[in-house]
Amino acid sequence: SGLPGAQFADFIVGALPADNGAFTVTFQIYQEDRDIVRALRDPEHFQAMCTAVGAIAPWVDPQTAEPTSDVYGFGQMDSFWRHTVLGNTPQVLNYYCVGDSGIRSNPKFGRGCTWTAVAAHRLAQLLADSMTPSARIRRYEQCLREEFRTDWETMLDIDRRTRAGFEIAAGRRSATARGRVGQWFESLVNRAMATEPDLFREIWRGYHGFTNMSAWLHSPRVWPRLLRAALLPNRDLQLQDAIARRPNRDQLANANLSH
């Protein structure tokens, strides 16, 4: 039901299907949780932690799947927006940033290839038109803002909230009242997506780029379903229990538990 993944305050995990029966499983961990990061690099422990997450366990069941590689880590999931026009004045002419050379977002949002293709098409159209180099670069960067800026800022805000949640779970900062409300709401949304298909579709339409990423917040179909999820927290208990099943922090950090 829903996505093969789960989001908790201190880690996020998801399986992404690929070709020919292959798939990846990715743990997103706060970079300062050194013990957990180190432990998850052990393939046997990684497998054990996947099995301990209810949403992922069926995917990694040895009866149906087997690992095909070691565990790989990656970081530097930073975001930036490079401008070559400042105050409506081009700083360089006949140079156009396309793709990650100009705009980068966390790869978990899956926008890199899409945004690169869209920007390349916009640039090709502008290069085919007759205009001065200064007008062309101004128009190109305006196109980038119109196409991507709102979603890029939404992604940046999600990353900030996710990092704050990681830091609270790791004991590196205290939760504020506003932060607790935000965490409660995000938990409600994550839980409701598994039991409310219409809500799931509205949110993922934005995630996949068919609408603005925050458009679901303004959909009249969403709020009655969120209200139902809040008032009936025990609805579909078996499914909820499966989604909630996870290793605790000691298990995440102790690779010996998997042997």
Percent helix: 40-55%
Largest sheet properties: 3 strands, antiparallel
Report the sheet-strand fraction: 5-15%
What is the total tally of β strands? 7
Unreliably modeled segments: none
What value does the average pLDDT take?
A: 87
Count of DSSP H/I helices = 10
Oligomeric organization of the protein chains? single chain
**Gyration radius from CA atoms, angstroms:** 21 Å
Cα separation of the termini: 30 Å
Helix/strand class: mainly alpha
Strand order of the largest sheet: 1-2-3
CA-based shape = globular
H-E order: EEEHHHEEEEHHHHHHH
In words, what does this structure look like?
This protein is mostly helical and 259 residues long. It is built from 10 helices and 7 strands. The chain has helices at 34-40, 43-52, 57-60, 112-128, 133-169, 177-195, 197-207, 222-231, 237-244, 249-253; strands at residues 5-7, 11-17, 23-29, 80-81, 85-86, 89-90, 103-104. The strands form 3 sheets. Strands 1-2-3 form a 3-stranded antiparallel β-sheet, with no helix packed on it. A two-stranded antiparallel sheet has the order 4-7. A two-stranded antiparallel ribbon has the order 5-6. The radius of gyration is 21 Å and the shape is globular. The two termini are 30 Å apart. The relative contact order is 0.14. The model has no long low-confidence stretch (mean pLDDT 87).
Quick take:
By secondary structure, this protein is mainly alpha-helical. The chain contains ten helices and seven strands. The strands form three sheets. The chain has a three-stranded antiparallel beta sheet, with no helix packed on it. A two-stranded antiparallel ribbon has the order 4-7.
